[in-house]
Design a protein that fits this description.
The protein has 285 residues and is α+β, with helices and mostly antiparallel strands. It folds into two domains: 4-136, N-terminal domain of MutM-like DNA repair proteins (Alpha-Beta Barrel); 150-274, Orthogonal Bundle (Helicase, Ruva Protein, domain 3). The chain has helices at 4-18, 40-48, 150-157, 164-168, 179-189, 202-223, 240-243, and strands at 22-28, 53-59, 62-67, 72-76, 81-86, 96-103, 109-116, 122-126, 263-267, 270-274. A hairpin with a 4-residue loop joins β3 (62-67) and β4 (72-76). α1 (4-18) packs across α6 (202-223), α3 crosses α6 and α5 (179-189) packs across α6. The chain binds zinc ion (ZN). Pfam families: Fapy_DNA_glyco, H2TH, zf-FPG_IleRS. This is Formamidopyrimidine-DNA glycosylase.
């Protein structure tokens, strides 16, 4: 699944290549990715044709193309989505779902393609959404957003009795922190994920936030070059996840700090990985 750094790579890549281009035409090859658009596939295409792209923005794992008329093309990559750029005539991908034919300011045609095998992702035209689509206005900023408010995060987390790992995954508090980043940041901070928010100090929470930012930044740095080749793979299978993980997926492996085998426990239909020695569980209240 594309994690936030991959989505940021896509956003930044699109920003470099499609801003100031105009959408000449839209071809919906499968209706499912535009299922949330009440206009239907034909209306979706019609609402975008002729619109000029003025920016590419992101909130959590959602990205949107801001359009000159004030609307937005809002997208989510789901489990397997990709946004690809090609010169026209490049062979179609097997799972090509939506084709946008753009015209750059220089008059060059460019294809932007939404490719999605499993189709949990999707695209929708958000009326008036150029600044921030109302569909996602409830989602908090993420820690690598320059306008993320650390003090506000600390204040809100300290009012909650929930486990810190749940708080990290709460999209209303901080967005974009998936299971992997949460486990890695908690390991670095030597914090057990079950520690309640209201029992953590401000400095501890700020340190944790710093680790979240570092882990995301490292993933971003490793995934951040592929778009310039006009092709980006956002399947979440970047080398980062194979080489650099200290906790996530490391069950039974020695902790890189203390040598104690990493433990795995069930967590919200998924797993949590932690070092039982470096990350002590909380005492009960
Ligand atoms: Zn350890």
């Amino acid at each position: 699944m594309p994690e936030l750094p991959e989505v940021e790579v896509v956003r930044a890549g699109l920003e470099r290549h499609v801003v100031d281009s105009t959408i000449d035409s839209v071809e919906v090859l499968h209706p499912r990715p535009v299922r949330r658009d009440h206009r239907g596939p034909t209306g979706f295409a019609a609402a975008l044709a002729g619109q000029r792209i003025v920016g590419v923005r992101r909130r959590g794992k959602y990205f949107w193309l801001a359009l000159a008329g004030g609307d937005a093309l809002l997208g989510h990559l789901g489990m397997s989505g990709q946004m690809l750029l090609h010169a026209p005539g490049a062979p179609d991908e097997r799972h090509l779902r939506v084709r946008f034919t753009l015209r750059t300011p220089a008059g060059t045609p460019l294809e932007m393609r939404f490719v999605d095998q499993r189709m949990f992702g999707g695209l929708v035209v958000s009326a008036g959404g150029a600044g921030l689509p109302t569909e996602i206005s409830h989602i908090a900023r993420d820690p690598i957003d320059p306008e993320f408010d650390d003090a506000e995060f600390v204040r809100r987390a300290r009012r909650r009795r929930s486990a810190i790992k749940r708080l990290l995954l709460d999209q209303g508090l901080v967005s974009g922190v998936g299971n992997i980043y949460a486990d890695e940041a908690l390991w670095r901070a030597r914090l057990h994920g079950e520690r309640p928010g209201d029992r953590l100090s401000g400095p501890v929470l700020r340190t944790l936030l710093g680790h979240v930012r570092d882990v995301m930044g490292e993933a971003l740095a490793q995934g951040g070059t592929s778009f310039d080749a006009l092709y980006v793979n956002v399947n979440g299978e970047s080398g980062y996840f194979d080489r650099s993980l200290d906790a996530y997926g490391q069950e039974g492996e020695p902790c890189r700090r203390c040598g104690t085998p990493i433990r795995r426990v069930a967590f919200m239909n998924r797993s949590s990985f932690f070092c039982p020695r470096c990350q002590r569980p909380p005492r009960s209240r």
